Each structure stands twice: as structure tokens, then as C-alpha cells.
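call fold(seq) -> C-alpha cells
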Amino acid sequence: MPLPQYPVHHPSQGVARQVLSENPDLMVVSFRFDTGASGALHRHPHVQSTYVASGRFRFFRDGVAHEIKAGDSLVMAGNVEHGCECLEAGELIDCFSPRRDDFL
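ret:
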């Protein structure tokens, strides 16, 4: 049986989001950013891990800035405010537990 193909969404200028795989307990999502694009500060109840597949980002987590690059990762507890600025075009691979139903 072939894997499902999920559509690409553009939640903001210079950002492309695509679900890669999911089930009710876990979701894997690709976020591709152009240089200068940002992910607005937000919070959600899901635990989130972010892995930098490529590029360089300034990530804000609970009011603290972290510069991260390819190979780095961060984890955000549920309901912690976070967001990012893309310093060098790249891709983030995010995992959410449980699944972000709002992304489907």
C-alpha cells in the first residue's frame, strides 16, 4: 500500500509546511524557510521537537533566543511560547505529540 501524500501549505510568506507522516500519537512535519522568513511566536499543547535538516535559524523558546544550525535540535514542552527567524534558508523537521490535527 503506498504512503499517503500530504499537500504543501504556505502558512506565511517564505514558509512551506508539509506533513510527512502521522498517526494520532505522533506527527512528523517538514517546514522549509526562505532566508528572512519567520515562524510567528505561538504556543500549543503538543510537545514538539525540532531538528534542523539544513540552514540556520534563531529560535525563541520561552523568551530565550537560541541560534541553531544543521544537525542541531530543540524540544519544546507543551504550551511553551516559541517561534523562529530563518537566518539562512533551510528546512526544519518537527515532530509533534500528539498529532496536530489542525495541520490535516
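The mean pLDDT is 96.
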